[in-house]
C-alpha cells in the first residue's frame, strides 16, 4: 500500500513538473535567440507575473503575423504594442536578437521586415521583458516604452516629440487617421491626419501646457501606476490630462491608455479576476464629443456622406442617411454612397424635377463643410425649391428661420447634434429608386441572407439567339427597405435579340451601334477577344457623344460570352475616376458588344513608347503611376464585387482628356466574393507582366496585379518596354526588372532614365519609385505590398524599405 502511494505521488509530481515546463516561458533572451511565427505557438516571452506576452500574434483572417505585446491573461488578447504595423510578417518569419542590430524581423526567405538598428545607442547584451509590459534591450538603450504604437501602460511616459498613432481600423494595425503628439513647445495635442499625405488638421484637443499659458512648458506626458495622466512641467508641476478622481487600483485592475482608431483617447480598466466576464470599461476619455470637433479638412470621424452619433461610452457610431449605403459593407466607419442616380448628366431634361425627386426630412444633423452656397433671406419652401431645381444640390439645410445652405457631394464631417435644434435637413432622393443595381440576378440573390427578401425578375440569356419576351415585376417588401425595379421589355426578332434595362447601363441594338460606328469603320485597337471601334451615339439629348465600341470575336462565342458577362458584371458596378466607364452593351444573336466612354489620348503604351522617343513630363508620369495604383485599390478593396484584373499592362491603361489614367479591359478579370481572397484559374495576361505564381499552379490573389503594376511602374520610370531585343553587349538590359535592380544596386539609376533631366533632378523620388517597383515584382506574393500600401508609399506616408533581389523575369520563359 505504501509503495502504491509513493508511486502515485511520484507520478503526480512528474505530471506537475511536465505541466510546469510547458507553461513556463522565459522573460529574458540571450544574443542569438530567435522565434518563428507559427499558427500554433505565438508566445516567445512572458513577463515574470505572466500578465504580458511578447511574440507573434496572428492577424485575423490572414496568414500574416504581428510582432507584438499583449495582455496574456485576457481571452481577447488586447494588443498594447506592435512593431511591423505596415509590413505584417508571413508565416515562417523569424525574429532574432543580435548584438549589433538588436531585434531583427525577417521573412521566411531572409528579407528584412523590421529592426531596431537605428534606435540603438550601443551593442546589446541581452533582452528583458518586465512586469510593466516593457521589453528592454539591455546595453542598447532601446525599449518598447520609448517607441509606443497606440497605447501607453502604467509607468510609461512620452518625451517631447513623442507620439501615439491610431490604427486604421479596430483589426487593421496600419497607421490610422489620428495622432497624439507632445509637441516641442510642451503642448499635448490630438488631431486627425489626411491619409495618405499625412498632413495634420487642426487640433481637437490641447492641454495648453505651453510656457505662455502655464508657469512652465510640458516636458513629459506621464501615465502613472494608478492610472492618472498628466503633463509634467519643467518646474515639476503636474497639469491634469485625466482627472485625479479617475485613479484606479492596479492591484485589482489592468490599465491602458489608448488612442482608438476612431480618434477617442481613453483610459480603460479590466478586472484582473473577472467573474462575470466583464471586459474593458472606460475610466476617462477625450474629447467629450468627437462627432462635433472642429476640423477644416477631410471626411471627419466617419467617412464621406455619413453621420456620426455619440454613444454612451463617448465613442462614435457612424451610419448612412436614408437611401444611402456603405461603399464597403465591411467598414462601418467608411464612406456612404447614394443608392440612386442623381446628377446634372443623369437628370432627364424633359421631366419636371419634382417628378424625379423628393426630400427626406431630418432634424438635428449637419455636414458643416459641404456648403457651396448660402441663400438668405429664404423661407423653408424657397430653400427646398432651390435645392430641387439645382442638379448639383444633394442636401439643403434650413436654419435660423431665414438661412438656406445648399450642399454637394461628398458631404463631410456629418454629425447628429442636439444643439442644432432649429435646423432641418432636406436630403434629395430619387422617387423611382432608379439604382445602381447589378444585371446578374445571382448577385442580387446574394443579399437574401439579410433581413431583406428580394424577389426580382431577370432577363435570362441562353445559348439560343432568340429571346422570348419576358415581363417580371420585381417586388421587395422589407421592414427597412422597398426596392422597385422597372424594366422595359419588348418582343424581339431572331436578328435583334436585345433588351432594355432602366438602369445606369444603356442597352443598344446592333443596328444602332453599326450606324454609330459607320459600319465598324474606324478601328482604335484590337486584342485577343475583339476589336475596338470609334463611334458617335445619340445620348438621348440634342447632343452626341463619342464612344469606343468593343466588338467581341464571334468565332470565340463561348469565351466571348463569358468575357461579355464578366465585363458587364465587373465594370457595370464600378465607379471610380481611374477606371474606364461602361456606358452600355448589346447582345444580339451571336454578337456581343460593349460601349465605353471615349478616351481621347489613347493608351499609356503609346504615351510612353512614342515613335519620337521623347520622354513625357516626369511629374505627369508620377501622377499616372498614382492614378493606376488608386484604381487598383478600388478594384481590390472598395468596389461591390472585388476584382482581380489579371491583365494590367500599358495597352490596358487609357488616358482621358486631362491625361488621367483610366484602367480598362476587364474581360480577363476574376471576380471575387467579399469573403474570397484567392482563386485558381488558368494563365492570363502576357509575358513580362505575368506573376510567377501563374506558372506554378499556385492560388491566384490580387498580388498578381501588384506584380504587373510593378512592371508597368518601371516602364513609366524608364519609358521603355519591359522586354526588348538588345545587342549582345547590352544583353543584360533586355529584361527591365533585372536591369532596374542592377541599376539600383549599383547606385546607377541615371542609366535607367538616361536623358531625362526632370527625373534626374528628382533623384529622391526616382529612387523611391524604383524601390516600390522592385517590392512589387518579388517572386513571393507575401513579400509584395498590397496596392493600398503601394499608394501609401507613393504618397510618402509609409517608408520604403530596401528591396531584395527579385527573381529574374526570364524564369517565365523557361517555365512556359
Automatic annotation (TrEMBL):
<keyword id="KW-0808">Transferase</keyword>
<keyword id="KW-0325">Glycoprotein</keyword>
<protein>
    <recommendedName>
        <fullName>Receptor-like serine/threonine-protein kinase</fullName>
        <ecNumber>2.7.11.1</ecNumber>
    </recommendedName>
</protein>
<dbReference type="GO" id="GO:0030246">
    <property type="term" value="F:carbohydrate binding"/>
</dbReference>
<dbReference type="InterPro" id="IPR001245">
    <property type="entry name" value="Ser-Thr/Tyr_kinase_cat_dom"/>
</dbReference>
<keyword id="KW-0245">EGF-like domain</keyword>
<dbReference type="Pfam" id="PF01453">
    <property type="entry name" value="B_lectin"/>
</dbReference>
<dbReference type="GO" id="GO:0016020">
    <property type="term" value="C:membrane"/>
</dbReference>
<feature type="domain" description="Protein kinase">
    <location>
        <begin position="518"/>
        <end position="795"/>
    </location>
</feature>
<keyword id="KW-0732">Signal</keyword>
<dbReference type="GO" id="GO:0004674">
    <property type="term" value="F:protein serine/threonine kinase activity"/>
</dbReference>
<dbReference type="GO" id="GO:0004672">
    <property type="term" value="F:protein kinase activity"/>
</dbReference>
<dbReference type="InterPro" id="IPR051343">
    <property type="entry name" value="G-type_lectin_kinases/EP1-like"/>
</dbReference>
<dbReference type="InterPro" id="IPR000719">
    <property type="entry name" value="Prot_kinase_dom"/>
</dbReference>
<comment type="similarity">
    <text>Belongs to the protein kinase superfamily. Ser/Thr protein kinase family.</text>
</comment>
<dbReference type="InterPro" id="IPR001480">
    <property type="entry name" value="Bulb-type_lectin_dom"/>
</dbReference>
<feature type="domain" description="Bulb-type lectin">
    <location>
        <begin position="31"/>
        <end position="150"/>
    </location>
</feature>
<keyword id="KW-0472">Membrane</keyword>
<dbReference type="InterPro" id="IPR036426">
    <property type="entry name" value="Bulb-type_lectin_dom_sf"/>
</dbReference>
<keyword id="KW-1015">Disulfide bond</keyword>
<keyword id="KW-0812">Transmembrane</keyword>
<keyword id="KW-0067">ATP-binding</keyword>
<feature type="binding site">
    <location>
        <position position="551"/>
    </location>
    <ligand>
        <name>ATP</name>
    </ligand>
</feature>
<feature type="transmembrane region" description="Helical">
    <location>
        <begin position="453"/>
        <end position="483"/>
    </location>
</feature>
<keyword id="KW-0418">Kinase</keyword>
<dbReference type="Pfam" id="PF07714">
    <property type="entry name" value="PK_Tyr_Ser-Thr"/>
</dbReference>
<dbReference type="InterPro" id="IPR017441">
    <property type="entry name" value="Protein_kinase_ATP_BS"/>
</dbReference>
<keyword id="KW-0430">Lectin</keyword>
<keyword id="KW-0723">Serine/threonine-protein kinase</keyword>
<dbReference type="InterPro" id="IPR024171">
    <property type="entry name" value="SRK-like_kinase"/>
</dbReference>
<keyword id="KW-0547">Nucleotide-binding</keyword>
<dbReference type="GO" id="GO:0005524">
    <property type="term" value="F:ATP binding"/>
</dbReference>
<keyword id="KW-0675">Receptor</keyword>
<dbReference type="InterPro" id="IPR008271">
    <property type="entry name" value="Ser/Thr_kinase_AS"/>
</dbReference>
<feature type="signal peptide">
    <location>
        <begin position="1"/>
        <end position="23"/>
    </location>
</feature>
<keyword id="KW-1133">Transmembrane helix</keyword>
<dbReference type="InterPro" id="IPR011009">
    <property type="entry name" value="Kinase-like_dom_sf"/>
</dbReference>
Amino acid at each position: 500500500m505504501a509503495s502504491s502511494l509513493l508511486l502515485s505521488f511520484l507520478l503526480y509530481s512528474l505530471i506537475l513538473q511536465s505541466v510546469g515546463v510547458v507553461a513556463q516561458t522565459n522573460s529574458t533572451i540571450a544574443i542569438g535567440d530567435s522565434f518563428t511565427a507559427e499558427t500554433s505557438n505565438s508566445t516567445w516571452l512572458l513577463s515574470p507575473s505572466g500578465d504580458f506576452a511578447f511574440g507573434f500574434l496572428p492577424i485575423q483572417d490572414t496568414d500574416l503575423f504581428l510582432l507584438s505585446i499583449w495582455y496574456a491573461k485576457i481571452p481577447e488578447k488586447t494588443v498594447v504594442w506592435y512593431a511591423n504595423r505596415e509590413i505584417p510578417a508571413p508565416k515562417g518569419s523569424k525574429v532574432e536578437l543580435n548584438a549589433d542590430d538588436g531585434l531583427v524581423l525577417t521573412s521566411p526567405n531572409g528579407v528584412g521586415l523590421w529592426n531596431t538598428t537605428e534606435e540603438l545607442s550601443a551593442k546589446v547584451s541581452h533582452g528583458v521583458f518586465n512586469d510593466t509590459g516593457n521589453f528592454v534591450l539591455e546595453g542598447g538603450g532601446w525599449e518598447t516604452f520609448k517607441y509606443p504604437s497606440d497605447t501607453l501602460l502604467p509607468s510609461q511616459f512620452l518625451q517631447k516629440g513623442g507620439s501615439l498613432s491610431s490604427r486604421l481600423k479596430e483589426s487593421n494595425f496600419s497607421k490610422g487617421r489620428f495622432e497624439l503628439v507632445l509637441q516641442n513647445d510642451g503642448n499635448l495635442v490630438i488631431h486627425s491626419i489626411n491619409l495618405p499625405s499625412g498632413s495634420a488638421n487642426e487640433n481637437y484637443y490641447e492641454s495648453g501646457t505651453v510656457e505662455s499659458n502655464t508657469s512652465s512648458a510640458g516636458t513629459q506626458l506621464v501615465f502613472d501606476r494608478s492610472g492618472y495622466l498628466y503633463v509634467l512641467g519643467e518646474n515639476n508641476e503636474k497639469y491634469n490630462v485625466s482627472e485625479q478622481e479617475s485613479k484606479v487600483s492596479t492591484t485589482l485592475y489592468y490599465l491602458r491608455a489608448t488612442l482608438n482608431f476612431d480618434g477617442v483617447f481613453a483610459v480603460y480598466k479590466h478586472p484582473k479576476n473577472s467573474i462575470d466576464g466583464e471586459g474593458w470599461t472606460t475610466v476617462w476619455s477625450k474629447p467629450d464629443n468627437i462627432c462635433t470637433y472642429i476640423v477644416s479638412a477631410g471626411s471627419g470621424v466617419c467617412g464621406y456622406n455619413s453621420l456620426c452619433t455619440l454613444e454612451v461610452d463617448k465613442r462614435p457610431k457612424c451610419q448612412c442617411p436614408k437611401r444611402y449605403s456603405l461603399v464597403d459593407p465591411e467598414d462601418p466607419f467608411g464612406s456612404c454612397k447614394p443608392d440612386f442616380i442623381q446628377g446634372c448628366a443623369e437628370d432627364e431634361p424633359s421631366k419636371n424635377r419634382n417628378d424625379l425627386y423628393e426630400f427626406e426630412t431630418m432634424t438635428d444633423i449637419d455636414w458643416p463643410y459641404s456648403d457651396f452656397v448660402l441663400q438668405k433671406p429664404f423661407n423653408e419652401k424657397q430653400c427646398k425649391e432651390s435645392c430641387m431645381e439645382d442638379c448639383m444640390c444633394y442636401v439643403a439645410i434650413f436654419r435660423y428661420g431665414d438661412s438656406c445652405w445648399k450642399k454637394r457631394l461628398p458631404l463631410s464631417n456629418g454629425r447628429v447634434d442636439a444643439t442644432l435644434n432649429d435646423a432641418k435637413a432636406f436630403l434629395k432622393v430619387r422617387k423611382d429608386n432608379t439604382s445602381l443595381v447589378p444585371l446578374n440576378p445571382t448577385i442580387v440573390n446574394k443579399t437574401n441572407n439579410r433581413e431583406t427578401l428580394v424577389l426580382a425578375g431577370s432577363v435570362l440569356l441562353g445559348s439560343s439567339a432568340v429571346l422570348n419576351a419576358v415581363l417580371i415585376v420585381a417586388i421587395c417588401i422589407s421592414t427597412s427597405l422597398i426596392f422597385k425595379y422597372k424594366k422595359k421589355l419588348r418582343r424581339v426578332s431572331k436578328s435583334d435579340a436585345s433588351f432594355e434595362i432602366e438602369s445606369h447601363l444603356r442597352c443598344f441594338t446592333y443596328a444602332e451601334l453599326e450606324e454609330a460606328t459607320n459600319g465598324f469603320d474606324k478601328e482604335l485597337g484590337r486584342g485577343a477577344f475583339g476589336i475596338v471601334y470609334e463611334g458617335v451615339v445619340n445620348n438621348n439629348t440634342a447632343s452626341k457623344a463619342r464612344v469606343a465600341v468593343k466588338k467581341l470575336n464571334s468565332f470565340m462565342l463561348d469565351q466571348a460570352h463569358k468575357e461579355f458577362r464578366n465585363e458587364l458584371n465587373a465594370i457595370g458596378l464600378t465607379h471610380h475616376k481611374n477606371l474606364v466607364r461602361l456606358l452600355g452593351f448589346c447582345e444580339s444573336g451571336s454578337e456581343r458588344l460593349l460601349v465605353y466612354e471615349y478616351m481621347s489620348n489613347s493608351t499609356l503604351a503609346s504615351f510612353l513608347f512614342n515613335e519620337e522617343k521623347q520622354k513625357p513630363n516626369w511629374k505627369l508620369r508620377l501622377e499616372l503611376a498614382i492614378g493606376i495604383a488608386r484604381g487598383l485599390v478600388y478594384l481590390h478593396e472598395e468596389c461591390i464585387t472585388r476584382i482581380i484584373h489579371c491583365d494590367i499592362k500599358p495597352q490596358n491603361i487609357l488616358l482621358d482628356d486631362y491625361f488621367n489614367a483610366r484602367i480598362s479591359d476587364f474581360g480577363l478579370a476574376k471576380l471575387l466574393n467579399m469573403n474570397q481572397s484567392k482563386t485558381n484559374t488558368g494563365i492570363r495576361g502576357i509575358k513580362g507582366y505575368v506573376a510567377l505564381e501563374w506558372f506554378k499552379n499556385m492560388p491566384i490573389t490580387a498580388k498578381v496585379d501588384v506584380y504587373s503594376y510593378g512592371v508597368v511602374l518601371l516602364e513609366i520610370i524608364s519609358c521603355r518596354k519591359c522586354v526588348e531585343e538588345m545587342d549582345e553587349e547590352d544583353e543584360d538590359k533586355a529584361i527591365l526588372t533585372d536591369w532596374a535592380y542592377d541599376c539600383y544596386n549599383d547606385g546607377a539609376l541615371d542609366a535607367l532614365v538616361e536623358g531625362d533631366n526632370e527625373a534626374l533632378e528628382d533623384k529622391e523620388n526616382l529612387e523611391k519609385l524604383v524601390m516600390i517597383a522592385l517590392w512589387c515584382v518579388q517572386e513571393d506574393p507575401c513579400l509584395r505590398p498590397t496596392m493600398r500600401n503601394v499608394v501609401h508609399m507613393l504618397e510618402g506616408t509609409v517608408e520604403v524599405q530596401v528591396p531584395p533581389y527579385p527573381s529574374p523575369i526570364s524564369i517565365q520563359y523557361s517555365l512556359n
